[in-house]
Design goal:
Length: 307
């Protein structure tokens, strides 16, 4: 029987859930959780996605994530595949780690955003010693929201939730947010129909700053723009000349991120490169854009503004 198609939308946010197979701990020690969060950060930055909340438990993960138009399946495949490779090498094992496909639900309203945030941040209540002290659990973003600890993984964007609350004063937001989460401490499932009256019965100035990236730019237009900015011919950008590898890497990365192309499709636009080779090009292209002030970072941001 075929699997049910995953519900997706180009402008959607998601509640993502990943669980390990039976009798196998997804995280055996704190270092494993740190590694997983580093992977979430790496691929979120690489594909320009945003994370609003997370909670890592011993055998499962909850993430509230906004792919900003990027394909959620590709994003989670990158994160979880990299983690399985790390985990199997570290613990000298083989085979599957995650229980089937990750689960995801579209977050389609402000109420859903708030209730999901509370649900994720209340997850640690089932861990011994954390009931009533959920904000102290180190592998949840709750403590970051309350200003109790720094976001050491540089992962969380609080602007959406703060925007929905409509409270500009930091201390006032923290107090109201903690009250909101605490009132839903016994919630066992996410209730998108929760009226959230304490929030929506007041007038809020709502500006989350959320931006969806249009990921369907025309490849030919992108390549031509890059060639123009680099003062190179289109042929040199996509040629097999190894001396142009840096340009090819940047172009491959942009095609991946802003054109929504898979590696095989990129191979059709850049000469003489294999799928595995294309993966390497994209990795190098991402590194080039991460260099602050580099011409590649400037060109990438200009392409974003062209949308």
């Amino acid at each position: 029987m075929p699997r049910k198609a995953r519900e997706k939308h180009s402008e959607a946010q998601y509640h993502v859930m990943c669980r390990s197979i039976s009798e196998v701990e997804l995280f055996r020690e704190d270092a494993d959780m740190d590694h997983y969060l580093n992977l979430v950060r790496k691929y979120s930055r690489k594909y320009k996605c945003v994370v609003y909340a997370y909670c890592l438990m011993s055998n499962h993960v909850h993430i509230h994530i906004d792919p900003r138009g990027y394909d959620i399946s590709s994003l989670m495949h990158s994160i979880n595949t990299a983690y399985v490779i790390y985990y199997n090498r570290k613990y000298d094992r083989h085979g599957h780690l995650f229980q089937g496909r990750y689960l995801s639900k579209i977050v389609d309203s402000d109420r859903y955003c708030l209730v999901l945030s509370a649900y994720i941040h209340n997850n640690p209540k089932d861990i011994g010693g954390y009931r009533g002290r959920e904000e102290e659990y180190p592998y949840s973003s709750y403590g970051i929201y309350l200003g109790l600890r720094k976001d050491t993984h540089k992962l969380i964007d609080k602007s959406l939730i703060r925007g929905i609350f409509g409270i500009k004063n930091k201390k006032s937001f923290i107090r109201r947010y903690k009250e909101f989460v605490s009132r839903r401490s016994e919630m066992e499932v996410v209730d998108p129909d929760d009226p959230c009256e304490e929030i929506f019965n007041t007038k809020n100035e709502y500006d989350s700053g959320r931006k969806v990236i249009i990921r369907d730019m025309k490849p030919a237009k992108v390549i031509a723009y890059i060639a123009m900015k680099l003062k190179k011919s289109v042929e040199s950008i996509i040629s097999t000349d190894r001396r142009q590898r840096e340009y090819r890497s940047f172009t491959a990365y942009v095609l991946r991120v802003l054109c929504g192309m898979k590696y095989r499709q990129i191979c059709e636009n850049i000469y003489n490169v294999t799928v595995s080779g294309c993966s390497g090009l994209c990795r190098r292209g991402f590194e080039l854009t991460e260099s602050k002030g580099s011409m590649y970072s400037v060109i990438f941001n200009e392409l974003l503004c062209l949308q």
